[in-house]
Each structure stands twice: as C-alpha cells, then as structure tokens.
Amino acid sequence: MQVVKAKLLSILILIPLPVFAELPWQPIGVEDYLTTRPETVELGKRLFADEILSGNQNISCQTCHHPDHGTADGLSLGLGEGAIGIGPDRKANPEIMKRVPRHSPHLFNLGHKSVTEQFWDGRVSLDPDAPSGYDSPAEAWLPHGLTSLSAVQATLPVTAQFEMAGNTGENEIIGAVRQRIDYAWPVIVERVIAEDEYWDLISAAYPNLERRRDTEYTHLANAIGDYINSEFQSFNAPIDRLSRGEQIDMTADQKAGMQLFYGKGQCGECHSGPLFSDGNYYSLGLPPMGPGRTRQWDPWARDVGRMGVSNRAEDAYAFKVPSLRNLSFTAPYGHNGAYATLRAMIEHHDDPIAALENYDRSQAILPEAPHIEMIDWIGFADKRELERIKRSVDLQPLGLSDAEIVRILEFLKLLDEPELLTKLQSR
User: Fold this and answer.
1) Residue 91, in any domain of the structure
2) Which of 52, 290, 320, 332 has minimal Cβ neighbours within 10 Å of its Cβ?
3) What is the reported pTM?
4) Angle at the Cα of 176 from the Cα atoms of 170 and 179, rounded to 5 degrees
5) Which domain covers residue 182, as residue numbers?
6) How many Å apart are CA 130 and CA 20, to the nearest integer?
7) Residues 210 and 339 placed together within one structural domain of the fold
C-alpha cells in the first residue's frame, strides 16, 4: 500500500488541490464495457426476475439484487430461499436454517473490462489456464462457453442451498446438486424450455438453436450475464462529467471532501480508478456479524474472506475493495453489511480496532428470525477470534474529525447516478 500511496502523491502534486480540474484517472464510456446483444439482454432480463430458476420457484436473482435497493437487497445479510418479501420487509419461515452468509453486493459496472474477479472473496475469476477459462467453486464441472464473469456468477446461486436451490429433499434441483453440481443445470433448462414464451426468447437470442433440447444452461447464464453487464453500467455521475472536463456545481464541502478523499483520508489508495476500487483485498477488521462463509473443515464459525480462496494466511479476513459508485442507494455497507450508514462505515475506517471493540449491534439490518438469531453474534463470543481479526487489520488510524468525515460524505454524493436508478426502477 505504501507503493500505491507514493504513486498517488506523485499524481496529486500535478493537480491543483483547491480546484481539482482533473482526476487521476481517465473517463470511461460504453466502449470500456464488454459487448452484449439486445436479444440476449432481453432474455437475461426475463430470467433475472423469474423465480423459475430456483428450486422451489419462490426466489429470483432480482430478489437479492433489486433496483429499489440499489441492485442489492437493503439488508445486512439476506434471507434466501423460503423467505417472503423484498428488502427490509423480507420475513423468514421456520424452515430457514441460516441467513445468506454475506451481504448482497450491488451489480454496477460488473461488465467493465477491468473487472477480472467477482464476489467479496474473488472466488470467481478469469483463468486462461482453466478448461472453461474461469476459476470458480464449480471447478472442473463449470460449463464451457461462458462469455463473462457475470455469466459464471449466474451458474452458482441457483445451486446454493440457502440462496436459490432449497433444502435437501424439497425439489429436483437440490437433489441433482447433491449428486454433482453440473447435474442441476439441465434440470433448470428443462423447466425453462417447456414454456413457449421462453423458447421464443431463446430462439431470438440464439437463432442457431434448431430444437428446444439443444438449449444448455450456458445459453441462459450468458443471457443473464449480458443483462447485468449491459443494464447496470454507471458512468454518468457528476464525478464522470468532471472527469470529462465538464463544469459541475460543487459545494465548498465537496471540494474539501475530494481533497480529503485523495489526501488525509487515504480513501483513494484503495478506492482508485474510475470504478473507485483497485480490485485488491484488505482486512478492515469488520465486526464478525452473521454465520460467515465458513470453510468446509474450519472448526470455527467464522469468515476468513480471501484466505478461503487463496489458502494464504496473509489473506485472512481480507475482502475485495468494493466500488463506491451509487453509495447513497446501496446501504448497508461491508462484506457482511455490518454498518447501516455510510458515516458509520467511514468512522470504522478512521479507527478500525476501536470501531470493532465498540460496535453498535443496532447498525445491523437483519430481518427478524428468532430461531436463527443466536448465530448472528456467535463471532463475538470467541475472544481469540476477535484478537485474530484485530491482528489482521491493514489500516492505521487516520484521526479524521467529525467535520472532515462530513466533507468526505458530501464528496461521495458526486459518485451517485440517481437517473440510472430511476430508469432501472421504471422497467
């Protein structure tokens, strides 16, 4: 990180700090995204919002990535298959065994060509040496012919018990998953192609398919990937207009906040580039709230983040730097949604260990589920685990004042694109 800091400071010397006439990254446009086709986007849009992909046909991709909640779900940790409702109004039923282990991330700019890994721990990534071209939890069973990381991602939640597949014995999809993951995808395809309306969309998207039975899950996943990569492009916020050399109205607090963001606040060291993420992994020492994505043989109920993928001790509790675009619409924040407000998240960055030690549990936005709530705070009962988290922290205290935090918050509003959210909500 010191190298990044030195490089950033050398850039800032060239920028008049009181004015910030230009930003230390180039503006982006449509040409910076993966190409898609309207026909596959239309098919993907329908599939994304359809519960037909889930085991018990009661949850869709859109349930946890809804435009009304900034393409996430407005919850710290979601309730997947079997729950009822959308967002903070979602309710559990007695059959739900645990919450979804991690906070549902927003979908903005996943189709940008610079994105090479997805998920909080990067467990889906480009891998030219793999037969499929990707590394993923599906390993050798991942279908070939997937055209983007978003398409790869679309193969996984439909096979996950607590997300979309359902509990063992409830339906044919989870039954197939229990035998082998790739047995489940043809079962989903059979459901979809049985509907004439879907076959019309599939035929339009893939005119080379002559028969319904020639459809594979790869066709469906690529369409969902195209929809995500096409419809959630965000590059017309005020900060983008500034990057293109246009004049924008900035308050004094926003100008000061920009200086703090790239200066004392050190935000720009990790939240760099046009997507406001360097794509790397760091430990912030976030409160260990929720069940976590526990490794198969781990004796503790915990979430070690990137270490679960890399198996490197230095990656313990490190999570992918998220993009800061449209933050006003994507609360709560963090890999487990530990903070309901952006201010609280910045305060955590200001002094991670103190924030961990004094965490206010009311910050968590968790749907009521009495039969599983004991799991929500189990991480705090293990004092040795808390010490391990503290030792992993990559940040040093910054000493930001309340006024400085307010100014950073004002600057971050320049990264919002409310017009995009309005357009998505109207579709």
Assistant:
1) no
2) 52
3) 0.93
4) 120
5) 36-65+107-231
6) 44
7) no
Contact 366, 360 (CB under 8 A): no
User: In the sheet that 134-135 helps form, which strands lie side by side, from edge to edge?
Assistant: 117-118, 124-126, 134-135
What does the pLDDT look like over 350-365, one tens digit per residue? 999 999 999 999 999 9
Q: How many Å apart are CA 159 and CA 128, to the nearest integer?
A: 24
**Which DSSP category does 362 fall into?**
G
Structure tokens at 343: 């201010």
3-state helix, strand, coil in the chain (%, to 5): 45, 5, 50
**Closest C-alpha among 335, 280, 263 to residue 104:** 335
The residues that bridge with 320 in the sheet, in sequence order, are: 281
Tokens of 113: 């060509």
Q: Are residues 180 and 241 in the same domain?
A: no
Q: How far apart are CA 180 and CA 271, in angstroms?
A: 39
Give the pairing of strands 134-135 and 281-282: unpaired
Radius of gyration of the chain (CA): 22
Distances (CA, A) of 384 to 49, 253, 296, 302, 306: 43, 42, 20, 12, 20
Segment 177-202, tens digit of pLDDT: 999 999 999 999 999 999 999 999 99
Whether 23 maps to a domain, the answer reads yes
Q: How far apart are CA 115 and CA 126, in angstroms?
A: 9
Position 75 in a domain? no
Tally of domains in the chain: 2
**CA–CA distances in Å: residue 147 to residues 50, 107, 126, 185, 231:** 21, 17, 11, 17, 16
Which residues contact residue 368 at a Cβ distance below 8 angstroms, ignoring those fewer than 6 apart? 91, 92
